[in-house]
Here is the input.
Amino acid sequence: MGKKTFLIDVDRCSGCSLCIIACKDEHVASSYSPWTRPQPDTGHFWINVQPMERGRIPRVRMTYLPLLCQHCANAACIKACPEDAIKRRDDGLVWIDPETCTGCGLCVEACPYDVVYMNDELGIAQKCTGCAHRVDEGSLPRCVEICPHDAIVFGDETDGVLGEAGRGEAPEIYHPEYQAQPRIYWKGLPKPWITGAVIDAASDEVITGAAITSVDLFEDGSVTVRSDEFGDFWIRGADKDRKYRVEIRKEGYEDFLAVVTTDGDQDMGTVRLNKTR
Amino acid sequence: MSDHQEHRVVYVSHPGSGLARSNFPLVCHVAGSKIIRSLPFHIPEDVRLYEIKTSRGVYKRPRKEVQMPLAYAWKRRVHAATRVKYPLLRDDWSPEDPNPQKRGSSGYSRISWDRALDIVVDQLKRIREKYGSMEPVLVQADGHGHSGYMQSLHFWGHYLFDMIHERLGWGWWTQQVRNPDSWEGYYWGAKHVWGFDSTLGEPPQDAVWDDVLEHSEMVIFSGNDPEATGLGMSGSIALEMVKWLKKAGIKIIAISPDLNYSASVNADKWIPLKPNTDAALYLALAHTWIVEGLYDKDYVRTHTVGFEEFKRHVMGEDGGAAKTAAWAEPITGIPSHTIRALAREWAGKKTSLSVYFGGPKVRGSLSHLAGRLEAYVLAMQGIGRPGRQFLRTGAPSFYKKSLAQIPRYPDVDKQGIALNPMIEYAIGKGPKSPVFIPRTLATEAILYPFVEWKGSTAALAATEDQFKRYRFPPTDGHPGIRMVWNENGSQPGSWGHGWKWLEALRSPQIDFVVGIHPWLENDIPFSDLILPAQTNFEHEDLISVQRSDLLAMFYQDQAIEPVGESKSDFEIHRMIGQRLGLDEVFPPADHWLKAAYEGTLASTKLGITWEQFKEQKSVIYDCPTWDEWVAIKKEHGFGPHDGGGLHAFCSQGGRLETPSGKIEFVSSRIAALDPGNAERPPLATWMTHAETKGSPKSQKYPLSVVSNHPRLRFHVQGDDIDWIREIGKVRGPDGYLYEPCWMHPSDAAERAISSGDVIMIHNQRGAVLVGAVVTERIIPGALSIDHGAKMDLATLKGKLIDRGGCINLIVPSPLEKYGVGKEIKIPEMNVSGFLAQAVKIDVSEIAASTGLGHGSTVSGQLGKD
Here is the structure.
């Protein structure tokens, strides 16, 4: 049997919350034996959408991370469970057997992605099953089916879900440092940006076409972008926690240099360039 | 509880939208009395979808059709704690002693339908005997509730009273007329520039996407939010249309005080501006264009009148300031270099402007000025020329002259689906009853002895109607309003002056209030008699899909047995009609639906009988192929990539509906019919007034509140659903889920407010509590609080407040907002961009209300089977 996998395209997610509601619609007050018992009315987010507000006015954007069980190949929850209640199907989906789970809660603590929830009423731990009951019928998981932006894709690894739906780029792993070998792949995980606007100090007009270059101070490589029709520039996909020298150049103006540390998104604000004498 | 039980599949109309039109339905799986799940609809492969073929690619729509999140949570409302299951009578109401001041704080008791109908009929008879007609009955029913062809339609009140007038001769009723609530600025303003009465003041959308996707290089989202209003009203086609723009490489510029949901992920540039200052921005754009020669001079010369006067105003040659970018900077909060850059971009690229119901601009005070100035700047850039369109990102496509916005057969447009004639009570050329009140003035009609205004506010009224003077009561010595027929249950959460409306309902003048609604919420607990209405799950109906790009009809089976003794809206009015001897005009629902269906192409052309349709459940019309569409367009005077409502005007010498037939910078109609009106002069300008910064009031209330359509609710609907609340609210330190309020960090710092704090938003009209969300998504000096939060009255230090964050409780009445001149006002709604102050409060000082609002939480009388 091919391994099932999800691909999450962060750039496509609008944070609409339809996946959250569809998951609840499927699982609250409904039991799908053997994979899971009913989800409580509220408090569980077998899929959640984590909003990240980025930037400063007026250069602000939202990035949303749809987060569900990563169905890890090296799952901390499986190792933590003293009852062997957490199992992996042949297709790779990880599930908590509600008949065996004693509700000790060790898996909730062990999961580095924080996607396992306690159902206090039933005395068991619960999480995303990958909609195993639907997958067995040949249907898509609810979050995948409802997503109006195709931000969550599901399928067999061997069917090229990652290749085709991966849309050209090698998929990423969320928090590889957890070493959990997750089976959920990502595209467009947020990386810091360096932004700002370039303005002519004397005329108070925006400067378009200025070259903005970021040079990594400790590694090889640089990126150059141009300021747009509003004078704005965006260097996207910088590496986190690096130091960059940012050079802003435009013919007829004095160069502007700054050092930026990408401990998050960086907005250099309005950069006023002076004309060369 | 197992999924493995057998389930039926039932198509159920999406709860929002309303007005007898629907989106594609929810596909509900039902077992016994349980709605197991609601799935999105997939358009079958044998239905032919359209393709828009352009030099920049082919544009299609997916077969999956998704509605707003609320729709998939709607099943939670069926058995909500607030559900009205039986007719309920207020405990301290009697015909002799109605105790009006106790409305909103009394309990209710279950009564039989028989007794309820007796009470209704007795009260109608009493009104007639005492006052001689039905005119003292205010009927509030504007149809904007649940979608469904007839059973859940909120128009039956008008129909009932219309029939009482026509068949029984009991006289007219007071018809509450729906105002142009989400397109005010175009209705009261832009119509005077370019006409378009039949499309509510906005240019028609005929084949507009062919033009935009072929030619446009930039689209301005002027407060447009396809992720909220678009998805809610039109379903996922609204989201798809944004993807088309992106795919075509069209730049999206969002102009709004808030970085709304769509802009936050789709805009290439956000230009935040202070609420309700769009008019000043437009003037500054015009200034830059004039100075730099960046406008379509030929077009202005041949297609417009009055430009020279506008130019003098812009250049400061009429005694005022020149409307430079520097002039606009402090007003709008937009750096002058950004204004000039926008002006150059707009002129240099083929630019369209996009709206879709709502957004802060069209719903604020004096929005008619912004609406007109927007039309001016579009005219300066040659609106109607290729790629320069007025663009609506969503259905419905009654915004057309002859062709749909996307490829569709004209005969399908005309007769494909059933359109309920009841719509005319809300979207008509004028009120049916000569005795009427705009919805924006319903409060004043009760509380004030006399109200006078201009314009009926009817959606399709001719522009001339805006100069007609109307009054209420219609004659001196008239009894005014004595009874309220509330089929909406939404007034305090969607319209202005909410606290005053609650006061009006408690007025001693009002002898009887009937509420017809499925839930004890909003202003329904201010009723004397509550008649239990149903959700869409509980009755059969026709689903007339018109709020999508495609046209279709579905048959809605009854998904579950009715809750308690609830009846459909239609059945409730039918029962009352039967008591009054109006059986003939209230045939059974199935007769009505059958007749409506048999007038459509499904029956007349495709030959699908009503019985067959009920069996097969759906008819979805094919779309033309691209080649067929090109041929259809040719017959209507359009080339393959022509489109938009000004195409003929632009290229074929057509006339607009304005007196001159051209785009009017100076309105000849206003100049002729209302020349001295200081609020709405013949030439639109920027004006300050009582609700703008710098006014005396702004010293005390310095923040400007933006109030948009919510993303997770449909107006006031659905705010009680637990799944919606847990993702949409702010959990206060007391664990209570507060309505979110966006506030810029600079304003928050000034007030020592942090995210998660409970803050009071207050002005001279009252106070509501909200949860702070400190964010860069709102311009400093403004707050964003969506409308429609569920009221939850409480007290704070002994003063009555709303803990639910229902912001419309403290928005202005149209009669107070201007403070400019003494002339009789157009009853414009102003629910966005009004002044307030924010202050952090101590949650330990909140106490439950023991008076007003108490009734809304009483449930002891409910639910006992």
About this structure: The domain at 4-187 of chain A is CATH 3.30.70.20 (Alpha-Beta Plaits). Chain A has two domains: 4-187, 194-273. Chain A has six helices and 16 strands. Chain A has a mean pLDDT of 95.
